[in-house]
Amino acid sequence: MRFVPSHLQRSAATLDGRSAVRSMLLIFAAVMICVSAMVFTALDRVGHYANQLDENRSREAVSGALQTFGEQLAATLHDYAAWDDAAENTYVREDISWLDRNFGEMSADNQLFDVALILDHSGQPVSAYSDGERMQPELTGFVTPDVWTLFDKVRRMQADELPEASSFVSTSKGVAAVAIGLIRAKSGELSVAAEETRYVLFFRHLSATTVERLARAYVLPGLSLIPPSGQISHVVPILSPTNAVIGGLSWVPRSPGDTSLAQVRPLVWCAVAMIAIYMLLLFVSGNQALARLSAEEATALRLAMTDRLSGLANRSGLFAGLRDLVIKAQSEGKDVALLYLDLDGFKEVNDAYGHATGDVLIRSVSAGLRVLAGEERVLSRLGGDEFAIAFVGFDVHKTAAELAERVLDFLGEPLTMGERVAVIGCSIGLSVSRRGLVPSEELIRRADMAMYRSKEEGRGRWTLYDPSMDEEREERNLLELDLRAAIDAEEITVVYQPIADSRNFRLYGVEALARWNRKDHGPVSPDVFIPIAESTGLIDLLGLCVLRTACTTLKAWPDLALSVNVSPGQFRDPAFVSRVGKVLEETGIEPSRLTLELTETYFIQNPQRARKTLDLLRETGVKIALDDFGSGFSSVGYLRQFGFDRIKLDRSLVESVGESSRAVEMLRATVALARSLDMPVTAEGVESEAQALALRLAGCDLLQGFLLGRPVGAEVIDRLRRSGPLLQLPNTA
Description:
The chain is α/β, with parallel strands linked by helices.
């Protein structure tokens, strides 16, 4: 070991201590310098921000002043333009002197407008005043190209638009707000042709007095109007209707940041240490708080995009995920596919087993779809019984078709929910975006449209979107609009199909059927417009129109009964019973002559409500017939519970007569069942004499079909009432 003298050791220790202290001081000084620099930089930034904030507020105030200036003129113009007296004196009396007094002379010493012009439809002056003094017909100093632009805009406005417009323009007097409006009655009515219309134009110039008034009102020191070429940073440009700069309002900035900084800076040096410590603590605590907030925000965002019942993405999550897929597809040159699923039997499960079981079913379906979709795909529940699967890739048509088939197979199998088993199935719509060129919202719309096509074509299938679907939907929308107009205009006609007594084949009654001859298109099949009426809610108006027309016609046939079909949509209407009663009261028809025919759909879905409605209908005296019996699921219990006044056999039972002896036996058994419940039977779809004879022998008391008569007009029914039996068969007595 090397020996070191003690004093040298002490000197070395002292030097080491001093070096450490010096280093600490240097570090501290450097820290303080950095902190001071940061503090002063921060103060400078605060001052700059305060200046910028004040400038932004001043800019907003100036913009607001300009906007209010223009809106006040527009409001003033509206009061003058939509004025019954003005319309009377302009179009009826054509009193120019009245217009001069009430428009032009009002511009004198008026703080609302200082120039008033009245032009005809071609732009020629009728009256022109500036500051209460009449002006010469030459108005080029005021009716500038910008004014012509606004004038043309007002002239081209449609009837459902407010015929007024306003903006800023440059005139011979300076920069002004201008408002143009069509002179009309306060109600908006106009009794003259377009060529005879008159228009009022108000100008309100930004004079020195006006600008000074704005400066006082909005606390804007040094507010002044400058020309378009003024190179000033603190200015709000004034734009013409063509977005050209015609001037500007400038102000003197107050720079509150600089003033405040000058007052605060001397005290900063005394607080540097405290600020440094505070900033350090703030930095540490702020980082911790930001970390917590970021975690909570991520959790909240995840929950906001998640469906709580299924654990899948919700509608917002689908939109976000689909947008990401579209961006990815555009960058990688891939395609986007979207499968839109709707469970076919979910509502029935809910109605039969309750919502708790329905929730279990949703979770089971979600779990199965999660397995089928895989990890790289966006899977979401859109609400209710709708789901969506989206993914990107090459050759997505084939992949999507295979996935759709697997989903159909999965949902086509029975699903076990505890002790319950349900078979639901689904309908799928498929849309594809080539290279991500179709936006996410449009992709969803197309898939939804394709899904509804799957439902319309029988459910339990998948359908690829085709552009023709948009054309069909557009045609359907046009049909709906025309149908609504036809109902309002009472253009729906009613034809009547004969109903014969099976004993003698004489005319017993008629069934009223709606017919529509679409304007400029020709006849529309009931198979087309009836479903449209049911899906759009027009069925109530349509059914009421048919019922009223048929009952009115029935007054001329006191010996006939009337049958009218009622859709489930009408039957669900709480006011349906009262409307039927009102029609019977207005037409004076005996209620017992009217039979309302209903299918079993609504009775099975809502038996309690249906029973209540039936009881109310019976109180009016009308009869109720169960239509299409034999094609659905009606049980003997339902027949006994509702106690129909008549049963109408489905045409499928009638068509099978003559094909086999078993069909005849089934027919006889069905009629015998109705007879045992004391319910008369009507058979529809009779098209041959053999069918008519077999139905009569089976016990049907009324027959209806093409054999006995097609749907015809009221005048044909008048002849049939006087012509004897509708059909001649052996032993018809």
